[in-house]
Amino acid sequence: MIHRLELLDALEQAPSGPLEITAWRHTFGSHPPDQENTRGARWNPSSVSAIYLSHERNGAIAEGNHSIAVQPLRPQSRRFVYAVEVSLANVLDLSDPRDLARTGLSDGDLAADDHTACQEVGSAVDWLEHDGLLVPSARSDALSLVIYPAHRLPDATFAFGEGESVP
Questions:
Q1: Could you tell me the residue ranges of all domains in the chain?
Q2: What's the pTM?
């Protein structure tokens, strides 16, 4: 896939490096926290697998609440939130609004139901072979961590225990 040269330049100028963190994952029903999104979402087109987490427990729950709110029928599945120990080698950090703006994204793009602009960035991050992306959440003040599993090193950590039920 060919990406806009300006976008690739902006991504290569953004900070990147290793990340070790306890992040949070919201799931429904029997879906495990390490299940990859392969259908596409805000930061991954359907051709790119991703796992979405939040820096904060409340951020993960806010994302789950939004998932419910946009459904025509409220899901009946139980909800869970998991604390996940994560270590990655090469995370691209777009949490600074200036770095995010250099990619051409606006606050409107972050909140929009049309994910095309964010997916273009996520696809480029994947193409550059980063194993993660830090971005502002569209649903809370927390940061979101998007993991691109195809680029995780064999010694990367993704460890979780029992999930906590969310009402």
A1: 5-166
A2: 0.92
pLDDT at 107: 87
- Looking at beta carbons, which pairs linking 132-135 to residues 24 or more positions away fall under 8 Å? 132/19, 132/88, 132/90, 132/91, 132/92, 133/43, 133/91, 133/92, 133/94, 134/19, 134/91, 134/92, 134/93, 134/94, 134/95, 135/43, 135/94, 135/95, 135/100, 135/110
- 15 pLDDT higher than 90: yes
CA distance 70 to 122: 22
Nearest-angstrom CA–CA distance, 151 and 129: 6
Write the DSSP symbol of residue 162: P
Ramachandran quadrant class, 25 (left: phi over 0; alpha: psi -120 to 50; beta: rest): beta
Q: What mean pLDDT value characterizes the chain?
A: 93
